Amino acid sequence: MSLRRCSLAFAAILLVVAPATRAWGPLGHRVVAELAQRHLGPAAGTELERLLAAEHTTQLADIASWPDQIQNDPAQATLWQQTRKLHYVNFRGGPGCDYVPPRDCRDGACIVAGLARYVAILRDKTQSDAARLEALKFVVHFTGDIHQPLHAGYRDDLGGNRYQVQFEGKGSNLHKVWDSGMLGTRGLDWLAYAAKLDAEGPAPLPPPIAPLDDPYAQWARESCRATAAPGFYPDGHRIGQAYVDAELPVAENQLRISGRRLAAVLNLALTPR
Questions:
Q1: Which residues form the signal peptide (predicted)?
Q2: Could you give the CA distance from residue 251 to residue 245 in angstroms, rounded to a whole number?
Q3: What stretches in the chain show pLDDT beneath 70?
Q4: CATH number of 3-270
Q5: Which three-class secondary structure state does DSSP give residue 26?
Q6: What are the residue boundaries of the structural domains of the chain, listed by start?
Q7: pLDDT, tens digit, 9 for 90 and up, residues 28-65
Q8: Do residues 255 and 24 touch, judged by C-beta distance below 8 A?
Q9: Which residues are bridge partners to 154 per DSSP?
Q10: Helix, strand, coil in percent for the chain, rounding step 5
Q11: Strands (DSSP E) along the chain, which ranges?
């Protein structure tokens, strides 16, 4: 099979399975990673643990926030500069969240292209283990990022970073509230949170968005559309219990979907062919 046909087949399978900011924070990223690891097949799980051995861990959650952490590591300054724009996509269109790569992902500098790039490296058994391990870290992290709605929001408010709010009696912004603020109200650690969400069963997946044939573009559009839902941007810039009651289930469903899709990506990428 040609490389192009193989890539198209991989994208088609993902669509069937799933017809300068941080996302989720360490808690959310660990939850997504744990949800995914719980649903890996035996072969993918074995290959995952082999790659993770270089990090002296068997837990996917332990490397889930690494692509954020490198911004504070002088030794990784070049890599951070190369990848920092890959954590999000800023849509520039109207409320339909239409994804136009030359406009929304110029020169491949967005999360949609970033995911495709690192999944390809992870799948490529001719790459070194070090390159595939680094790719694994980005795939895990970016799959979490792309399901945080404000990592696929609109350019005018920089994904909610410019939308100031009052939350729990303090000034914040909407992006930060979605990253970690609302999740923190559960008072659960990442293992307990993952167990809670996993006990709810497989997350129902949204239907494919025609005519998209790029699963990562679809995931981004789904997140963007969530930001357009009534009430997502709180009236009066104040976030109270009513907002948390309405939106926390949305955030948790995104975590569940992200974990399910990450498991699908890793099962395809890590299982020997």
A1: 1-22
A2: 11
A3: 1-23, 93-95, 209-213
A4: 1.10.575.10
A5: helix
A6: 3-270
A7: 999 999 999 999 999 999 999 999 999 999 999 999 99
A8: yes
A9: 91
A10: 65, 5, 30
A11: 164-167, 170-173, 238-239
